[in-house]
Amino acid sequence: xxxxxxxxxxxxxxxxxxxxxxxxxxxxxxxxxxxxxxxxxxxxxxxxxxxxxxxxxxxxxxxxxxxxxxxxxxxxxxxxxxxxxxxxxxxxxxxxxxxxxxxxxxxxxxxxxxxxxxxxxxxxxxxxxxxxxxxxxxxxxxxxxxxxxxxxxxxxxxxxxxxxxxxxxxxxxxxxxxxxxxxxxxxxxxxxxxxxxxxxxxxxxxxxxxxxxxxxxxxxxxxxxxxxxxxxxxxxxxxxxxxxxxxxxxxxxxxxxxxxxxxxxxxxxxxxxxxxxxxxxxxxxxxxxxxxxxxxxxxxxxxxxxxxxxxx
Length: 312
What we know:
By secondary structure, the chain is an all-beta fold. The protein is 3% helix and 17% strand. The strands form 3 sheets. It has a 5-stranded antiparallel β-sheet with strand order 2-1-8-10-9, with no helix packed on it. Strands 5-4-3-11 form a 4-stranded antiparallel β-sheet, with no helix packed on it. A hairpin with a 5-residue loop joins strand 9 and strand 10 (299-304). The longest helix is centred in the N-terminal third of the chain and has 8 residues, at 10-17. It starts with 9 loop residues before the first helix and ends with a strand. The mean pLDDT is 91.
């Protein structure tokens, strides 16, 4: 839809940009509550202040703004032998607003896979990156880092791997280096420490918090770090190393895998979950691509669990 190129009146401007009667032209300055900055107008530009005329709105189209979350694949816990630390969540970046115009931009999305458990003793497998990339005219470029694999209580394998969020340390008892894997600032948090004397491993880090430390006894593995809420969703929590419940946000509990489509870290000896990208904007559906939901919170969501394109 656009403002007509001829016979422009206040009603046609209102149809495109919104507003409630009685209306006046001064309500439609660019950058105000009704006309987003960047709204194209062939006879404009639409001014942000000062003199304004209806002729400047001929052919004008309302731009809109979206927010996004990009979550990489979560990591796995360590291999089948020894005392395993849990996998870290995939790195997560929340951003926006991004201004776009209906029918003009296409954004390319790739989804990172969750990390796999190694077939023999060794640290867990890291997750893979997820990306959101805009066209040259709207050059958005977002890339997240996969979660770090969990460590294991074997020589040289104890420390959790670094990643978007770090993996948990294996159960303490092997030679160093020690510690949970580090996370990347702005994407996640470190993994937890393992328990003493070859006991439980540390939990994987999450977007919202660090992994918990393991305690004495194999059942007392560290809990996964908390995830992040994005509208109606909760993503990117770390895996748990013990028998604790799964962490909201897709992290696996005990030996459970991380949930695909959340970037959750895998529990001890379990794979990580594949990543996800979600785009949301206020109001009814404008764009296309992904699984589209309008849950009644005032936003439309486009959720991508496989690679694809969001078209404005």
